[in-house]
Amino acid sequence: MSRSSLFTPVELGALRLSNRIVMAPLTRARADVNHVPTAMMAEYYAQRADCGLIISEATAVDPQGMGWYRAPGIWNEDMVTGWRVVTDAVHQSGGQILAQLWHMGRLVLPDYLDGRLPMGPSPIAGEGETFAPRPAGDDSLFLPMKPYVVPREMTQDDIDKVVSAYGRAAANALSAGFDGVEIHGANGYIIDQFLQSKTNHRTDNYGGPLGNRLRLLSEIVAAVTEVIEPGRVGLRISPTSERKGMGDEDPGTLAQAIGELCSTFGLAYVHLIEPIASGFMEKPANPVMERLRASYDGAVIQNGSFDGDTAAAFIDGKQADAISFGRPYIANPDLVRRFADELPLATPNFDYAYVGDETGYTDYPTWR
């Protein structure tokens, strides 16, 4: 089948993309130990700048929401300076890049918080385990793993501080030269924790009915769009995902309500994680894409187990305006060319996905 639709321009709000191939956020843990972006990261993103749009790896808005060894943040001037090197490299290579703004909520280990408990909407632990910081003197390849803990329930003051942190992070993203931001409302992190009924058991204005569970998202979007024009702001969601102990009583209605909220604010796009085949995440039994597109009048980026052919088919069928690719971008810096010329894709070495330096990061070759 023809893949030509992948290579046509598209507008996502105020963003003009030269093609419909989007680099999805990929946590790669190559910032320094203080969460400051590095020159190595600039090289990595510049290698991939021929796609229509790069969305940065998840970037913490506040120390309380950072729970990943050597993932980047954007809450201080050193981080802004580090990110400026990255955005300059992408722009010099002809690309566009958004900062994905992130707070992990209940999924932060106390190890990252000087022993304090993380915070979440309700005192319910995430399911599974996550990377802990590397112990002093440990130079092994792999990081230790620890289970998630029961968080403390957030107070109104906690909520207000998180909303403010997103607003400051948006301002810092502009100072760092980003072309806009994506709000991370997916994958079981703090916004998702408030949205989904399984993880939000609050009895105040932020819990219970769906309208209340949407309140944190609405306040964060308002704070971000006070700083950045809405046409340069996107939102990533995963209403059908049950990873890390997530789950909602009615994902379709949740997706529809999120679409209505995004239309009200005039956001550039909604980035929907809804796999078309099971892999890193399970394919949902009841997809919500149609409910989202019916309620939202902006562009939709779809994500989840796509290849060049299925991506083009979704665009041709008006099921998406663009498609984002995550894991294929790890080992294929020239993914756009490989899709265009129908070349084989290289296979990533996942031993180096979240640890290391140049190996398994910037050393994947282009097609010869």
Q: Gist?
A:
With about 375 residues, the chain is α/β, with parallel strands linked by helices.
Overview of the molecule:
The structure is a single chain. The protein has 368 residues and is of the alpha/beta class. The chain has one domain: Aldolase class I (TIM Barrel, Alpha-Beta Barrel). 29% of the residues lie in helices and 15% in strands. It has eleven helices and 14 strands. The protein has an eight-stranded parallel barrel, surrounded by five helices. Strand 1 and strand 2 form a beta hairpin. Helix 1 runs parallel beside helix 2, helix 3 packs parallel to helix 6 and helix 7 packs parallel to helix 8. The chain is globular, with a radius of gyration of 19 Å. It starts with 9 loop residues before the first strand and ends in a 28-residue tail after the last helix.
Secondary structure class reads alpha/beta
Strand order of the largest sheet: 3-4-5-10-11-12-13-14
Number of domains: 1
Task: State the fourth-level CATH superfamily.
Answer: Aldolase class I
Rg on CA atoms, Å: 19 Å
Are there runs of 5+ residues with pLDDT below 50, and where?
none
Count of helical stretches: 11
In CATH terms, what is the fold-level topology? TIM Barrel
CATH class: Alpha Beta
Main beta sheet: 8 strands, parallel, barrel
The best one-word shape is: globular
* SSE order, one letter for each helix or strand: EEEHEHEEEEEHEHHHEHEHEHEHH
The amount of helix comes to 25-40%
CATH architecture: Alpha-Beta Barrel
**Strand composition percent:** 15-25%
The overall average pLDDT, rounded, is 97
Query: Distance N terminus to C terminus?
Result: 25 Å
Number of strands: 14
Family: Belongs to the NADH:flavin oxidoreductase/NADH oxidase family.
InterPro entries: Aldolase_TIM, OxRdtase_FMN_N, Oye-like
GO cellular component, one term: cytosol
Cofactor: FMN
